Amino acid sequence: MRFRSFEGRIVGLFLLMMLVVQLAGFITIRSGIDHNARAAILAELEISERVFKRLLHQNTQRLREGAQLLAADFGFRQAVTSNDRETIVSALANHGARIGAATVVLIDRDRSVKASSSNQTSPALVQSILTLIDQAQDMQSQNVLIDRHPYQLVVVPVKAPLTIGHVAMTFPIDMQIVTDMKALSGLEVSVLTAGRDGKWLSDVSTLAKDEASGVAQQMQSLVASTNSFTTNLETSRGQFTVRALPIVRDADHVALVLLQRSVGEAIAPYRKLQATLLLLTALGIAIAVAGSFITARRITTPLKDLSRIAERFGRGDYTEPVAPRGDDEIGALSRTFETMRTSILRREQEIGRLAYWDTLTNLPNRARFSIQLSEAIRKAALNHHPLHILMMDLDRFKNVNDVLGHTFGDALLRQVAERLKIQIGGEPDQVARLGGDEFAVLLEMPLEQAQLVAARILGSLEEPISLEDQTVDLGAGIGIAGYPEHGVDAESLLSRAEIAMYAAKKTGNEAVVYDPILDQGSQQSLSLLSELRRALERNEFRLYVQPKVGLETGKVIALEVLVRWMHPEKGLVFPDNFIPFAEKTGFIRMLTRWVLEESAVLCHKLAAQGLDMKISANLSTRDLLDQELPTKFADILARHQVQASSFCLEITESAIMDDPVRAQVTLERLHAMGVELSIDDFGTGYSSLAYLKRLPVDELKIDKSFVMNMESDADDAKIVRSTIDLGHNMGLRVVAEGIESEVVWKLLAAMGCDQGQGYFMSRPMPADKLPQWIEQWVAPIITSDLLKISRFANK
Amino acid sequence: MTFAMTRITKPRGIRVLAVFSLLVTTIANTQAGNVSVIVTDAAGQPLADAVVYLEAAGKQPLSLPVRKAIIEQKAYKFAPLVTAVQVGAEVLFPNNDAVRHNVYSFSAAKTFELKLYSGMPGAPVVFDKPGTVVVGCNIHDRMVAYIHVVDTPYFARTDATGMARIENVTAGKFTLKSWHYLLAEKSEPSEQMITLTAADATASARVGVSAPAPR
Question: Is A74 near chain B, with CB under 8 Å?
Answer without folding.
Answer: yes
